[in-house]
């Protein structure tokens, strides 16, 4: 074989460059990557560069702007491929000059990787971008340099994950915006394939001084065809919204950089059809898939499977890393440990953004903040990916708002900065502005607003000064030309709704309500989690760039009078209303000593509830957008729902509440796996609690004699448990999407109790829940250890990992959920004291894994059912883990045996099995049978202590017996009494 050409890739750490480097190395070419010194020390590039090295790629330190280093690099190779970014296209004249000087380069591939720039009908600013690439073509030809141009058309990883929908992070499920009439055809190529075809052309004489068009026939689709194929995949018809060309052109003109460029390129491809409206002439070029038919390129049909499910195990192994999603923006939150800041950190991390929190050294040693900061740090091990920038952590960067150098260093690592600093630090944000200007790479700055629109307020002192400071920061941002979004979140529900704006109360009023003014101006009350969600949604959305994001969902706009009326309706009682005239409010503010907190709060309330400053203006498209209109997929908490939570929480602890307070209608519950071991207990608990209860059962189950009696008891349970309610068996199957959707449409809550063999099939439940869209809560099949806090060995490790995978899928789809960690089933462990091969508790000897000291939890199955159903309508368990760990059910193995010895009046011989022997037995087992699986579970529970070796943090979980003290659970001692 002829010796393969040595290839130099310039821009190898960029978006398409890394795929070309990979393809070159895989093809056996001696591969060189020109990287700047700064790239090697960049944490974001370090892993990529390490990957290059491990693939045998030679790193050459140099720079396009350093002629000497460029010439030195070119002297070592035969072929040069440029994959530099759009901002450096003209710098390729320096590569051309270096190639001319070196004189031996066999082929140059300039940075194209888009449309064929000699066949476009683009408008500005894309017109200029294409013209610059054409200019480079002409310079190459004028210099007589051998070349190949590669128009790769669209990157699949850019366009297909959202179907080219602006502002989305996943394919559309309801409606799709189509530029033009949707008929011109475009080409969508997977990035690995682009890399492969490019490298194939390197030593191919047929592509010398030609254009290599990557236009595989199975990847050519019109927008309409693309949408139709997606509709077929998801089994749903989308609303198609067509945007006429004149409106597209207007959008391009009115959009800021870089979105005007993106829209203009889309106009070229989707409206003008510039990727497919010409015939490839053999004198000009060739089509890649015809030239290289051996390349198995990725088609859109295969790509679309990837988009349906977030879990890789649905894909072929060879496809698991394909279709790269656009990298999520890196976000720095300043003021992260403050009131609203912690919610934004959580929302950012949950959305998959690399999230950084700038905290002062003093915050780490502050006991009040330490637990929160630990939560930030630990969240990386589960769902969140939070990096704390601390002065005291040597592995991270020092950070302080008042230390310019550390602030610049922190900002250098991110794309977006969100400030949530407190009112006392508002003007200090000029330091953030100065640092952002110095760094120069920040795509968006969100200053600390999170209240009313300060440009449209009628505040009196001291609120007037506070508003003026926020205005001052706005003007400073605009003067510096910093891209920004201002978030007007209006009222924090957590501040005002728990007391209905009543001073001095810690709960909603029951007798009288003091109302400022006449109570008629309308205000807006938003749940803090929703504020954070909308804020993070706006980060990468071009529609919010240099705009105000108003969070004013229609169901959260109430006057104080309306708020009180709603509360009265909930508690079944009329309150005395005491109205305070405006002059008395103003007098009280003026007479308050100094600028104290109560005066400031009263002045803000005057602006909101007397002047109506949150709602007394129209949102004009020229300056702002409304969040719930922009992001209709966000299921925000309404005022009504919030008040229901208050009412319900007080009902649970009714010191001053009458039992006549009407409860909200109980949720309808579907149990999937209801005929299984734990499922039947949950069905029973649901019916006993008065919930309308549905069970999904297969046709084969109905005719199964072993299950028939159980199903009959489900049907008849209404008369036995609750005369007005009943259990409805629904014929359906987890693997039948249509029947699953049909069943889910009837209910509010879904509880899965499927067996371990079907754990991964729960992705089908997740897909159905997403399609239906009305489910208030999903309980996946957990009912054991907390799978995010285990030290399991195989085969238990895989079972735990599958449950964790389902957790991540639920969170990725933003489905409201509760995870139930029920720990050990008492009915499994206690009748034999976890002794293998026995059918009753031991009377002579007890085999104990390990030293018998780690503590475990043993819960009776009826209690697990009861606690699970209790959590269904409880807002305190929403998106939390419900740990069933009653204190009287926590025992070590030694304590359990001692208790049994006491019961039977006899001392047992205790045989301790060291951990290494347990592990050896597991490893030496020929098959992964039930006994080996149980042994691995027991190792996790009784040797590693995985049920009790951590603290339950309020940020992620709650303990059931504390939450529901009215439940009389069965204790371990009571359970053992059954066997004496």
From TrEMBL:
Listed A to Z, the keywords are: NADP, Oxidoreductase
Signal peptide location in the record? Answer: none
Name the Pfam families for this protein.
Answer: NmrA
Q: Gene3D superfamilies per the record?
A: NAD(P)-binding Rossmann-like Domain, UDP-galactose 4-epimerase, domain 1
Q: Which InterPro entries match?
A: NAD(P)-bd_dom_sf, NmrA-like, NmrA-type/Isoflavone_red_sf, PCBER-like
Give one GO molecular function term.
oxidoreductase activity
Domain named NmrA-like: residues: 3-299, 328-643, 665-976
Keyword Coiled coil attributed: no
Top-rank taxon: Eukaryota
Cross-referenced PANTHER family? ISOFLAVONE REDUCTASE HOMOLOG P3-RELATED, PINORESINOL REDUCTASE-RELATED
Q: What is this protein called?
A: NmrA-like domain-containing protein
């Amino acid at each position: 074989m002829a010796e393969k050409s040595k290839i130099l890739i310039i821009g190898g750490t960029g978006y398409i460059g890394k795929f070309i480097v990979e393809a070159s190395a895989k093809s056996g070419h001696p591969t060189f990557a020109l990287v700047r010194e700064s790239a090697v020390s960049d944490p974001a590039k370090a892993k990529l560069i390490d990957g290059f090295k491990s693939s045998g790629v030679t790193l050459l330190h140099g720079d396009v702007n350093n002629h000497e280093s460029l010439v030195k690099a070119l002297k070592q190779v035969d072929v040069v491929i440029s994959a530099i970014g759009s901002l450096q296209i003209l710098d390729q004249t320096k590569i051309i000059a270096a190639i001319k000087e070196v004189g031996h380069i066999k082929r140059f591939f300039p940075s194209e990787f888009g449309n064929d720039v000699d066949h476009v009908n683009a408008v500005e600013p894309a017109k200029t971008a294409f013209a610059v690439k054409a200019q480079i073509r002409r310079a190459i030809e004028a210099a007589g340099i051998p070349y190949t141009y590669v128009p790769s058309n669209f990157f699949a990883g850019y366009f297909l994950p959202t179907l080219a929908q602006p502002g989305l992070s996943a394919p559309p499920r309801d409606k799709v915006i189509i530029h033009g009439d949707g008929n011109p055809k475009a080409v969508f190529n997977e990035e690995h394939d682009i890399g492969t075809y490019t490298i194939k052309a390197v030593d191919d004489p047929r592509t010398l001084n030609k254009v290599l068009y990557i236009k595989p026939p199975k990847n050519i689709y019109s927008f309409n065809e693309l949408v139709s194929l997606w509709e077929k995949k998801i089994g749903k018809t989308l609303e198609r919204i067509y945007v006429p060309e004149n409106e597209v052109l207007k959008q391009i003109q009115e959009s800021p950089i870089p979105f005007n460029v993106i829209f203009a390129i889309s106009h070229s491809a989707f409206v003008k059809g510039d990727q497919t409206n010409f015939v490839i002439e053999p004198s000009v070029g060739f089509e890649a898939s015809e030239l290289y038919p051996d390349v198995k390129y990725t088609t859109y049909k295969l790509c679309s499977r990837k988009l349906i499910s977030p879990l890789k195990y649905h894909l072929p192994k060879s496809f698991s890393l394909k279709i790269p999603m656009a990298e999520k923006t890196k976000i720095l939150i300043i003021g992260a440990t403050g009131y609203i800041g912690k919610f934004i950190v959580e929302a950012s991390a949950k959305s998959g953004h690399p999230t950084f929190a700038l905290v002062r050294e003093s915050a780490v040693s502050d006991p009040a903040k330490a637990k929160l900061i630990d939560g930030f740090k630990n969240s990386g091990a589960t769902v969140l990916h939070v990096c704390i920038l601390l002065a005291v952590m040597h592995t991270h960067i020092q950070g302080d708002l008042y230390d310019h150098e550390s602030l610049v260093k922190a900002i250098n690592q991110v794309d977006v900065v969100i400030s949530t600093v407190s009112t006392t630090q508002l003007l200090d944000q000029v330091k953030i502005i100065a640092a952002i200007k110095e760094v120069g790479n920040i795509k968006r700055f969100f200053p600390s607003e999170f209240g009313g629109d300060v440009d449209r307020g009628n505040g009196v002192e001291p609120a007037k000064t506070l508003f003026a400071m926020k205005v001052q920061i706005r003007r400073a941002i605009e003067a510096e030309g910093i891209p920004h979004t201002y978030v007007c979140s209006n009222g924090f529900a957590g501040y005002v709704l728990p007391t209905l704006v009543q001073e001095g109360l810690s709960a909603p009023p029951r007798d009288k309500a003091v109302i400022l003014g006449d109570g008629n101006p309308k205000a807006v009350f938003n749940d803090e989690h929703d504020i954070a969600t909308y804020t993070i949604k706006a980060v990468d959305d071009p529609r919010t760039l240099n705009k105000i994001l108003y969070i004013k969902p229609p169901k959260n706009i109430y006057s104080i009078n309306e708020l009180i009326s709603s509360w009265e309706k909930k508690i079944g009682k009329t309150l005395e209303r005491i109205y305070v005239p405006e002059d008395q409010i103003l007098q009280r503010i003026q007479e308050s000593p100094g600028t104290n907190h109560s005066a400031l709060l009263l002045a803000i309330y005057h602006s909101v509830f007397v002047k109506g400053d949150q709602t007394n203006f129209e949102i004009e498209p020229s300056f702002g957008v409304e969040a719930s209109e922009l992001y209709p997929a966000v299921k925000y908490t309404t005022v009504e729902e919030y008040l229901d939570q208050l009412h319900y929480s007080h009902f649970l602890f009714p010191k001053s509440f009458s039992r006549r307070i009407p409860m909200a209608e109980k949720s309808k519950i579907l149990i999937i796996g209801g005929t299984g071991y734990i499922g039947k207990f949950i069905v029973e608990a649901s019916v006993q609690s008065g919930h309308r209860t549905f069970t999904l059962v297969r046709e084969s189950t109905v005719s199964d004699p072993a299950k028939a009696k159980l199903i009959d008891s489900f049907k008849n349970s209404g008369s036995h448990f609750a005369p007005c309610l009943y259990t409805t068996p629904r014929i359906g199957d987890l693997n039948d999407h249509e029947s699953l959707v049909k069943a889910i449409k009837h209910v509010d809550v879904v509880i899965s109790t499927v067996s371990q063999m079907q754990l991964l099939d729960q992705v089908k439940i997740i897909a159905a829940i997403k399609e239906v869209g009305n489910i208030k809560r999903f309980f996946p099949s957990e009912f054991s250890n907390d799978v995010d806090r285990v030290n399991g060995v195989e085969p238990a490790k895989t079972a735990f990992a599958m449950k964790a995978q389902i957790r991540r899928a639920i969170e990725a789809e933003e489905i409201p959920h509760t995870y139930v960690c029920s720990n050990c089933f008492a009915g499994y462990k206690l009748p034999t004291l976890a002794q293998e091969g026995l059918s009753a508790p031991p009377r002579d000897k007890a085999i104990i894994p390990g030293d018998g000291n780690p503590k475990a939890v043993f819960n009776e199955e009826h209690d697990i059912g009861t606690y699970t159903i209790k959590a269904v309508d409880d807002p305190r368990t929403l998106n939390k883990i419900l740990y069933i760990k009653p204190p009287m059910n926590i025992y070590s193995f030694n304590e359990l045996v001692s208790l049994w010895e006491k019961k039977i009046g006899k001392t047992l011989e205790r045989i301790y099995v060291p951990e290494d022997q347990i592990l050896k037995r597991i490893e030496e087992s020929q098959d992964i049978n039930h006994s080996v699986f149980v042994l691995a579970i027991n190792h996790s529970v009784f040797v590693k202590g995985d049920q009790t070796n951590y603290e339950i943090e309020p940020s992620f979980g709650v303990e059931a017996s504390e939450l529901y003290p009215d439940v009389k659970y069965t204790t371990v001692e009571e359970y053992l009494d059954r066997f004496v």
